[in-house]
Amino acid sequence: MPALRWAAMAMSMALLHLFCSVTETESFPGMRDLVVGLPGQPPVGFGQYSGYVAVDGRKQRALFYYFAEAEQDPATKPLVLWLNGGPGCSSLGVGAFNENGPFRPSGEVLVRNEYSWNKEANMLYLETPIGVGFSYSTDTSSYEAVNDKITARDNLVFLQRWFVKFPQYKNNSLFITGESYAGHYVPQLAELMLLLNKKEKLFNLKGIALGNPVLEFATDFNSRAEFFWSHGLISDSTYRMFTSVCNYSRYVSEYARGSISPVCSKVMGLVTQETSKFVDNYDVTLDVCLSSLHSQSKRLSPQRVTDAIDVCIEDETVNYLNRRDVQRALHARLVGVRRWDVCSNVLDYELLDMEIPTIMILGKLIKAGIPVLVYSGDQDSVIPLTGSRTLIHGLAEELGLNATTAYRVWFEGQQVGGWTQVYGNVLSFATIRGASHEAPFSQPKRSLVLFRAFLHGQPLPEAF
């Protein structure tokens, strides 16, 4: 009986929202993407939309999105675009359904995420590039030789056309956020938006935030050795080899070129053996199964790509998004693939783009007056905080920005939430204490505190 009442309430709320949306806004193109209700969903008072936006003239290539309006006053709240990394992993499955979206799968139903970011903003999740998740092309050659430039261009076209569907959000403050390889996606998209704005003000861009991002190949990747060693994951002798004989950036570079040298193979064999396959590199303190979350970084850890055994193959998010009733509710379809996957099996991404630094694009954005936040889950060994902190400090020096907030702790409630430093009131670095590569999953409350402060341009709490 309770389940039946929940279903009835959910339907009533959806119909009420539909009626109000039509009468108050006199309808808009995005109304056809309204999600009346997701299977197993608890009742909510906010609108949900999902569907496709074609990014080419012949409508052969389309990006899939999921949009959760803010819980209260969506018309006045910021619009936040969220991108996951990979390259080639899903913002729907990872970001929306495992990190900072309004729901998380639990068996056959969805449960509310108490720390969903749509408490503070209208959240737009984009499955990018083409070939990821439900995004598709009817021409499979579109999945070949995809690179950062193609992705940035498609994401720009998506946003332009998404605003045609949802014109009521065009003037809202716009923030772009993401994690991991979104350290490439987000800055490159923001740069294109600024270029377009010089001709015509199309985007009300107010800031970008990046979690454990790839910004500069060598610095980010080679900080892994010290992290492993300082956390006791590798021996002194292996640490010396990992920093002199073959460092991690060299290994990934060789892997991307399809030719791993014997010396690098030997070193990485030692590292893999000592760190153990039973330790989660994306959170070295977490001993629970998070297979779908790890997948977005699989290209950042190529030695794990060949692992044949996935102990978390029955991941609830994968199961949920492969249900036909869920796909119908989301207006999603599978084109050219049999099932929805967290990370694409059809996409051929140009991995050498990983070596192109994006840290200087952050400098361009800051010079244009766009605030930038880089945050790090401090238990992540894939893109460790030490590399990110070094890069942000170096960028501040290059831009001539003085520290306007000294390095200090910040609080979530009565506990230390992490550490932070701010430069010139426009460039910020923060850690999230106890958080993984996917910080909003492992530390949702602390991540929401950080997100709220960033949106409002406020300092992180100094005391409890």
Automatic annotation (TrEMBL):
Assigned EC number: 3.4.16.-
InterPro entries: AB_hydrolase_fold, Peptidase_S10, Ser_caboxypep_his_AS, Ser_caboxypep_ser_AS
Biological process terms in GO annotation: proteolysis
Subcellular location: Secreted
Top-level taxon of origin: Eukaryota
Catalytic class of the enzyme: hydrolase
Principal subcellular localization: secreted
Signal peptide: 1-25
CC per GO annotation: extracellular region; vacuole
Molecular function via GO: serine-type carboxypeptidase activity
Entry keyword set: Carboxypeptidase, Disulfide bond, Glycoprotein, Hydrolase, Protease, Secreted, Signal
SUPFAM superfamilies the UniProt entry points to: alpha/beta-Hydrolases
Pfam families registered for this protein in UniProt: Peptidase_S10
Family per record: Belongs to the peptidase S10 family.
Function: Probable carboxypeptidase.
Name the UniProt record assigns to this protein: Carboxypeptidase
Source organism: Punica granatum
Lineage: Eukaryota, Viridiplantae, Streptophyta, Embryophyta, Tracheophyta
